[in-house]
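Sequence, please.
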């Protein structure tokens, strides 16, 4: 048995136990591609191929840090004109899909034809504008994640065809694919924040990164929009994790790993 087969086996066995045997070929190909992926782009391509094989035109993955002004992470095959505007205007704050996903843990169906009179005007405008870009209906999976984080995967299409309805009847398949995708994205992010054998938190990594570029704690606080004391806290944590005695040594260790 190859190393890839050994890595795939427990994932596939878990998947089959949960979703049955109806989509074996698509799931095997998807899991293989996830295990082979070493970049965000290749992970996105794997999800795109799998979702299209299931009859869904496009997908999006949105990862938000709660209580933060940071721009959300969006990986998507939606039209770029729409995703660029979505991020620029911070539509995730008003998007009825994201609002609902934050409030429940169960997957759900959505679409322009499912809007109600209680949908806020801003939410209706977002749906109507998305529809102009071919995103008229879809199926979203909220993902439980670490404290302070929120993620959701949405599969979308331009109209509610019978193939779309048939696909979302097997929502457990889409749910499992979404969880695997989220797991691999988080794993990739952790590897990118690795310094030697140590994995830093996002803030520790950001603070050390800016410090390695010659920025002071005050300048870093302005860049990241956090207090100077918080910057010092993250730099001290990074120093401790790296097992060095000074921030200068931590910065040197960080720089040598890039």
């Amino acid at each position: 048995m190859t190393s890839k087969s050994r890595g795939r086996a427990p994932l596939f066995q878990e998947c089959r136990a949960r979703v049955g045997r109806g989509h074996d070929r698509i799931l095997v190909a998807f899991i293989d591609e996830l295990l082979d992926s070493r970049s965000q782009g290749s992970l996105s391509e794997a999800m795109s191929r799998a979702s299209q094989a299931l009859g869904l035109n496009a997908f999006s993955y949105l990862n938000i840090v709660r209580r933060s002004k940071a721009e959300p992470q969006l990986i998507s095959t939606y039209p770029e004109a729409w995703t660029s505007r979505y991020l620029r205007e911070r539509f995730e704050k008003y998007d009825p899909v994201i609002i609902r996903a934050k409030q429940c843990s169960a997957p759900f169906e959505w679409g322009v034809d499912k809007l109600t009179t209680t949908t806020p005007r801003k939410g209706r405008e977002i749906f109507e504008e998305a529809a102009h870009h071919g995103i008229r209906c879809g199926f979203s999976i909220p993902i439980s994640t670490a404290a302070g984080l929120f993620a959701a995967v949405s599969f979308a299409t331009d109209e509610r065809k019978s193939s779309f309805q048939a696909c979302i009847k097997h929502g457990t398949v889409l749910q499992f694919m979404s969880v695997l995708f989220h797991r691999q994205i988080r794993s990739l992010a952790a590897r990118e924040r690795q310094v030697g054998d140590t994995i830093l938190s996002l803030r520790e990594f950001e603070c050390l990164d800016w410090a390695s570029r010659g920025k002071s704690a005050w300048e870093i606080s302005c860049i990241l929009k956090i207090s100077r004391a918080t910057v010092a806290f993250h730099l001290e944590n990074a120093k401790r994790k790296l097992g060095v005695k000074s921030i200068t040594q931590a910065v040197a260790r960080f720089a040598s790993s890039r």
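The beta strands are 58-65, 73-76, 108-111, 137-143, 149-157, 194-195, 198-199.
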